[in-house]
Amino acid sequence: MQIKMCEITIGEVFDGYEDSGDNGVVAYGGRLNVRPAFQREFVYKDKQRDEVIHTIRKGFPLNVMYWVKTADDHYELMDGQQRTLSICQFLHGDFSITDRTDGRTRYFHSYTSAEQEEIKNYKLMIYVCEGTDREKLDWFKIINIAGEQLTEQELRNAIYTGTWLSDAKRYFSKTGCPAYKIAGDYLSGSAIRQDYLQTVITWASDRDGTGIEDYMAEHRHDPDAHEIWLYFKSVTDWVMAIFPKYRREMKGIEWGILYNKFKDVPLNPSELENKIIDLMTDDDVTKKSGIYEYLLDGKEKHLSIRNFSQSQMRTQYEKQGGFCPKCLKHYELTEMEGDHITPWSAGGHTTPDNLQMLCKDCNRRKSGK
Asked: DSSP per residue over 218-250, as a string?
């Protein structure tokens, strides 16, 4: 990793500034990619934005910014997007500030030529780095400690930019994006904070047996993200087919991981629905969202079956006189565990009449743990 400190004036950065909306923002003679296409919406509030300009007017230093050098003397803005956008938008005349020197509302063009030059000659402190994608990502995680905190996926997006990512953001990273429209009720998090994108890449990388960063690196220069969109559609179509009745507990489940494992398993939606009704009304099932995973892989751990209370276990321990009915040895209460005489899977409930205290070894042998 090579890191170089540079002093670059505001005028130099503003040169070639162009905001193309969803198609991105460039500056520095068109050589700086300020905001890649379909990246998270601008997050600075008016007060934060204005403070950037007030700081410059006073000649106080702004926090250091970070650029990544790409090919042919071009750069991507790694950290400092909101400050850079605030500066460029002000010089472009997109907003005014209340100048603290005279109390007047001022646009950039309303300053004198000398004042404009003073602003344009203000030097920004910028670290420019070159290195591998992994080196840049590790470095970005370290510097992401102030200002608007970025999510893990936003950190990755700053490194693995390219045609694939720009197109993927069109599907998964905007308010009201296609992913939200067809499956917003099934996805947790926020599209603009890249939660949807991280989710679908996690699913796809699981399918391919890779890591999320490996997946992004592999597809970085793909011409579009059509394949992962079709995969996402296949996942959602599968979910809606096998579990046609939507319940709020279905939100946030790792549906893609389940699709990867069970998409080819014959399943009967009507039978599944009847089982769901039974499990939803079972008081011993304390994690209702786990019902769907349980019905697919049969593992009771997803359901968090209700445990016996401490009072119930103490009462039963005293009734047994501290003896384990399996090995007939005496134990302290802390050496024993509550056990369902008739297992929950066989219709037993978490009630005092179905409780026995077993030593830990016997309980584990009975449970097959």
From this structure: HHTT-S--HHHHHHHHHHHHHHHHHS-S--GGG
**Total Cβ atoms within 10 A of residue 239:** 20
Question: The tokens of 77 are what?
Answer: 């803005």
d(CA 187, CA 200): 10
Planar angle of CA 45, 136, 153, nearest 5 degrees: 50
> Which uninterrupted H or E stretch holds 157?
helix 152-159
DSSP 122: P
Token code pair at residue 112: 């004198």
Q: Are 137 and 213 in contact (CB under 8 A)?
A: yes
Tokens read off for 18: 């162009």
Q: How many residues does the chain have?
A: 369
| Residue carrying structure tokens 């893609």 | 256
Is the overall model pTM greater than 0.85, yes or no?
A: no
pLDDT reading at 40 higher than 70: no
Residue 45's alpha-carbon distances to 32, 154, 191, 248, in angstroms, are: 23, 19, 19, 33
Distance CA 328, CA 361 (A): 12
Separation in Å, CA 183 to CA 15, 176, 178: 42, 11, 8
- Residues 186-224 have pLDDT tens digits of 999 999 889 999 999 999 999 999 999 999 999 999 999
Q: How far is CA 62 from the centre of its chain?
A: 29
CA 22 to chain centre: 21
Tokens of 56: 């410059």
Token pair listed for 34: 């300020």
Span 146-159, pLDDT tens digits: 445 678 888 888 77
Angle at 238 between CA 214 and CA 250, to 5 degrees: 85
